[in-house]
Structure formats: C-alpha cells, structure tokens
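Today's session is about reading a structure prediction critically. Students often jump straight to the picture, but the first step is always the sequence itself: look for stretches that repeat, for charged clusters, for runs of hydrophobic residues. Only then move on to the predicted structure, which in these notes is written as discrete structure tokens rather than atom positions. Here is the chain we will use throughout the hour.
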Amino acid sequence: MKKAIALFTLTAAIASGSHAGAVTLTIACGAVGQELELCKAGAARWAAKTGNEVKVFESPNLTNDRLALYQQQLAAKSSDIDVYQLDVVWPGLLAQHFIDLKGKVPAAEVNTHFKGIIDANTVDGKLVAMPWFTDAGLLYYRTDLLKKYGYAAAPKTWAELATMAKKIQDGEQKANKTFAGFVWQGKNYEGLTCDAMEWLVSFGGGTIVDSTGKITINNPNAAKALDTAASWVKTISPAGVTTYGEEEARGIFQSGNAAFMRNWPYAWSLGQSADSKVKGKIGVAPLPSGGARNAATLGGWQLGVSSYSKNQAAAIELVRYLAGPAEQKIRAIEGSYNPTITTLYKDADVLKANPFFGSLFSVFTSAVARPSGPTKSKYNQVSQAFSSAVSDVLSGKSKGQAAVAQLATNLARIKGAGW
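Below is the predicted structure for this chain, in token form.
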C-alpha cells in the first residue's frame, strides 16, 4: 500500500534535534487543486510548533478511488494512517473506524463551526470528524465574454445559460475550434452525483431519497432535469464532458477555452494565478435555477482520527490545529477553501482574497446535502446507482423518465429491509 502512494515527510526544524516524547503521525490528504500543498504546509507548521513529525500520504484525486483506498486500510485495522481526510458524506459509512471527538475537542471549539456540518459529522451521537473546509457548487463565467456578447449578468436559469453559452461558443469558435460553452463534471463518479443533485433540486425533482428514507427519484421533474443536462452534451458542452472530473473542467476553463464552468470554490484562486489565461476575467454566481430554486450541492472535507492510531492524543491535537481558525484562514486566502468557522466570512483578509464569499454566503449556508444521512452505510451504493443512471442519460443510452423509473427499482433493491 505504501508503495502505491506518494509519501512526504515533514519534520520540525528543531535545533535540539527533537522534543522529549515527540511522535510521528501520518495524515492522508487529497491532491485536487492546492489541497496537497496546503495540507503539507499546515502539517509542517504544527510539526514546527510541537516538535513532532508528520508524514503525508497523497490520496487519489477522485473521491471514489480515495474511499476505496481508505476502506482497504481501515478494514485491515492498519495503524499506518492516523488522520484521514473524509468527505462530508462518509461519516455514516466509516463511523466505526474513527474515535469519538466529542469531549476530546472542547464544545466551545466545536460550536464555532457551521451547525449543519457538525450535524453531518455526527453519527448516533458520535462526533466522527472535525470540519476542515466546506464546499458548494458554483457557476464560474468569463466576465469579458459576457460583455463582448451583450450580456449584463450571469444567467439566472439553465435555459438562459444554454442560450448564452451557445451564442458565445459559436462566436468564439470562429477563431478557436476547441472553445466550449459550458464545462462541468460528467464522469461517472461522485462528482457527477454532486452535479446531478444540483440539477434535480433546481428543477424541483427532490434529493433521490428524502430525509425519512423514502425513495423519491421517480418523478417528472427529476426526469426533466436529466434530459436537460443531456441536451447540453455535444451542443454547448464537448462530447468529452462525460469523462471530466473537477480538474479536467478547470483545465479547460482556466486555459481560456470555455465561457462557463461548474466547479467548487477552490477553482477561484487557481484561476487568478499568474499563469492563468483568464486571470481577472472570472465572475462567480449561484448555479442557475431549473424553475424551482438555485441549488448547490454541499461538499467539503473533514479530519477524523483513526481508531487504530497508536498516537491518538497527538492526532487529535493535529486535527484541532488544522481545523482551527488560523489554518482555515490561511487555506481560505491561499487556496479559496471555504471555512467552516462562521466568523471567517466577515474577515477582511478572507473577503479581499475571495470577494464572492460574502455575496454568496447564502449559497454556502443553504447548500443541499446528498442523502448520506438517511441511507447511512448504503450511501455509496445509492450514489453509484444514481451516477450510473445519470451517465446513461448523458450518453444517450437512456431517456430521463426510463432512467429514474429503473433507478427507483434499483434503489429499492439496495434498500432491502431498510437503510
């Protein structure tokens, strides 16, 4: 396992060589955008402060691959990794492998975070992980191109987006054949579940499974949402969009080859970097409505301490440090990672680096959770069934109504006697 993953070691620069009782911890971090770089930097600051050593495992980019790796480690009760970076939908699935942080992290500290995210990290009264950063889907757009083609503001509806994207794409393709109107996450993985959840909710099609555990996907609005998204493929979105994850979409948009992009907040700071072709030309807005409402899927990552760690006390301290206000502020300024601590949304330095954090605050606080709560340990199967059904519609193998009807049957089989 270790050979398959890049390993970084961050050792405190202590003149005396080491502190008495110093320990070595390993944290598993993602590598999307600046994730890995900022994780390493934060861990190094804690190491320098405490005299401990931190090793960093680089986890796979795609969430599904990362989950499979974690499950393999945890099933083996491996002590190799002390702190895991967990997706907001994983606590119910992995709770038995993590220590309860309630009481180990002071309540006053816990209460500085968004209540909804703390709730998502709490399973049967157990605080599985501490929030590290939150996410919600956003619409990125080229401010210069909207102005060039006579548009005063970002689209409010998906129909408006399709019209605007087509007009801009047709105009730009006269000089750049590879230019796309709209890029997003169309690959069959958890990212597609996130995108498609936004389509469903924005069209009034529900959330696949409701809060009581009832399967609700088989409805006309859900079918319409999927058919609408399928109509974008090969019209305003490239045929290859069905192979895109976050980084593929960002690469196209950041290189100046797309008018609109759906992505997470992390793409902002990278889009404003010195080597970005669209620096200073990016706007951010809520994702469009399908007629019911604007909807953004709740994303984000947490830090949990493995039950199999041999240094749990130190691991808890590392989690508290990384999830604390100082580190969250650094991550917000340097990487556009949304804080989970409410007061940071009024911090002048954070707002200067990310102007949209203030204007789109309601997008982050009203983001729609995927149905990991009601489906508990079966969420991963539910999500895979959903993204596969959506993928079939996007690729033309199925129409929306047939897909949601079949999906409802498949979900009932997964549910069995209960979630």
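Discussion point for the tutorial: DSSP finds 19 helices and twelve strands in the chain.
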